[in-house]
Design a protein that fits this description.
The chain is an alpha/beta fold. It has a single domain, classed as NAD(P)-binding Rossmann-like Domain (Rossmann fold). The protein is built from 11 helices and 7 strands. It has a 7-stranded parallel beta sheet, sandwiched between helices. Strand 2, helix 2 and strand 3 form a beta-alpha-beta unit. Helix 1 packs across helix 9, helix 3 packs parallel to helix 4 and helix 4 packs parallel to helix 6. The longest helix is centred in the middle third of the chain and has 28 residues. The radius of gyration is 21 Å and the shape is globular. It binds coenzyme A. Coenzyme A binds next to helix 4 and helix 7.
Length: about 290
């Protein structure tokens, strides 16, 4: 099976302009590349302008599409408004906001300073709120319709997860915002959806979160029923669908793309997967023998 194939037809996003926060690297970059291949103009934002400019140039050369780099720390509302206005200046309008920028510290919670906790909440929850509010207010004020907000969350937004508590707390808030605004802003022609990705390795985040040989010790693909991690194109396919007109009736949804990972941890008897066939034979024989007695 080739799950790295590109899903949508050429020009599926032609005419759309898209803002991807945290678009300079990792999954944001992968989604940006595919949006450009499908004909969209994309603005990528982060704190690191040089990295953004390099990515924009690389992707323009690779795809022949249009990508601009706009510096913005999503934690500061003034910077977010300035970023929005700069993108609108260049593109005329914006159709899609992809809240992808994130930060995460893997740590026992009691070891985190109050400022460390705030840092993650500020990037993930406040940053997504800042961007959503800035673009939403503009669209509503200008009576522009057919807009989409797509938020990248995580499956532990609803299960919670030990050792990433600030991230779990913030992503749960982003998910609540997604569902709330899906209803409240539908009347303005603004859809809100989310994607909850499982393990999709990226160099930056994974090296930082699981440094050294921790990556091998905690091989996350072993936790996935499909026994593999995700390919970036698989996520890009889903994101492209959710920002395209093909998903015009999808609103307030969070789509999990994790190979079944979170459910594996949830089902009461899922750990019986460890039982080999011979043992099942023995167990069946024992149960049948008991029935007969
Ligand atoms: N574990 C625990 N605490 C940490 C930490 C870590 N790995 N790294 C920094 N902190 C603490 C700092 O000590 C500081 O707290 P203090 O003032 O009480 O000492 C606080 O967090 C803020 O640190 P600072 O370095 O000023 O943060 P920053 O705003 O410059 O950068 C990030 C924070 C998250 C943006 C940065 O680490 C980063 O770029 N991460 C990459 C993005 C990422 O994490 N991606 C994963 C996506 S899931």
């Amino acid at each position: 099976m080739d799950y790295t194939q590109k899903m949508l037809r050429d020009d599926a996003l032609k005419g759309k302009s898209i803002v991807v926060t945290g678009g300079g690297s990792g999954l944001g970059k992968a989604m940006t590349r595919y949006f450009m291949e499908l004909g969209a103009k994309v603005a990528i934002t982060s704190r690191n302008l040089e990295k953004l400019q390099n990515t924009a140039k690389e992707l323009e050369e690779e795809t022949g599409g249009k990508c601009i780099a706009v510096q913005c720390d999503v934690r500061n509302y003034d910077e977010v408004e300035a970023m929005r206005d700069a993108v609108i200046d260049q593109f005329g309008s914006v159709d899609v906001l992809l809240n992808n920028a994130a930060g995460n510290f893997i740590s026992p919670t009691e070891r985190l300073s109050a400022n460390a906790f705030d840092t993650i909440i500020d990037i993930v929850l406040k940053g997504s709120k800042n961007c959503t509010l800035a673009f939403g207010k503009h669209w509503i004020d200008k009576k522009e319709k057919d807009k989409t907000v797509l938020n990248i969350v995580t499956t532990y937004a609803w299960t919670g997860s030990a050792y990433v508590v600030p991230s779990a707390t913030a992503k749960a808030g982003v998910l609540a915002m997604t569902r709330s605004l899906a209803v409240e802003w539908a009347k303005y022609g603004i859809r809100s959806n989310a994607i909850a990705p499982g393990p999709f390795p990226t160099k930056g985040a994974w090296d930082r979160l699981l440094p050294g040989d921790l990556k091998d010790k905690f091989d996350l693909s072993k936790k996935v029923p499909l026994k593999r991690v995700g390919e970036h194109q698989e996520l890009a396919n889903l994101a492209a669908y959710l920002v395209s007109d093909f998903s015009a009736y999808v609103n307030g949804e969070v789509i999990t793309i994790d190979g079944g990972e979170w459910l594996k941890g949830a089902g009461q008897f899922n750990l019986l997967e460890a039982i080999p066939e011979e043992l099942w034979d023995q167990l069946e024989a024992m149960i049948k023998a008991k029935k007969g007695s």
